[in-house]
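Re-run requested by the PI after the first attempt was lost when the workstation crashed. Everything re-entered from the original request form. Ligand of interest: iron/sulfur cluster.
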Amino acid sequence: MDSERIKQVARELGFDACGIARANRIDDEAAQRYVQWLDDGKNGCMEWAQNHQQVRENPELLLEGARSVIVVAMNYYPQVFQPKEAPQFAYYAYGRDYHEVMKQRLWKLGEAIERETGHKSRACVDSAPLRERYWAQQAGVGFQGWNNQLIIPGKGSYFFLGVLLTTLELEPDEPCTEQCLQCGACEMVCPSGALRCGDTVDARRCISCLTIEHKGELPEWVGEVIGNHVYGCDECQKCCPHNLEAVGNTTPEFQPKPELLSLTLDDILEMTQEQFSTVFSHSAVKRAKLIGLQRNAKIIKNHKINN
Ligand code: SF4
Ligand code: SF4
């Protein structure tokens, strides 16, 4: 089984992009950038980001004998959208939880590798200490823009990333050397000043992190910047010229439920646990829980009432 065959199977499984890198330690610059981000406290409430530093730098600590890093991507750009006045969910959360969808497909890719070569694999979708965007760049899939998103040339940044580590030695792709247009729009539109062009994101100020990851009450200033973002934020992607050509995904699992598209702020505020479990079954939104979603909705509503 060679690299071409891997990519063919990946395509058949519905992945929109696939690239391969050697499973070496990550380079010093990338390692240092991450350490600096932590030292600056920019991981905010994501305390888990401090764990497993050594593993994060060396994929062989995730899979003994790992030789190759197979990176795949799946488009999540929607075909249909919430009304503009509705409390906004980040596009990635419109459909079924990508962890489930991508892992199942990556397991199938791993099974094909084992069947044809006897080699072992490990699927990682945001579930292991692994630098997905770094590996995507190394595997030639795309480059990291000033908005810190992985951008696939000609396709944009609305893509989920997944990684299959394997003990199979494969011919690697050339790393992607393209850069973003450096127009500065992402910094300008960021509602909360979380983004400085060419720098890392400050999760302490990022609405995406605050509305999804943060547990407990949010600082008062969040009311000034939250706008209509009830779960996540796509502003630094929506403005990016690399996304002008984004095409709506056709993956059945990523299509939004009508109940999500029609949700109003009051629907969320009055939602019962049972309704939440129904609307968001198999959804990434469950990460914030009903309590987190209603906290965000309350902040949006209070700010609207007072202004
Ligand atoms: S908005 Fe402009 S600066 Fe920001 S990532 Fe896109 S091209 Fe780069
Ligand atoms: S997700 Fe929103 S708040 Fe976070 S960096 Fe991007 S634009 Fe700023």
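Saved to the shared folder this time. The mean pLDDT is 94.
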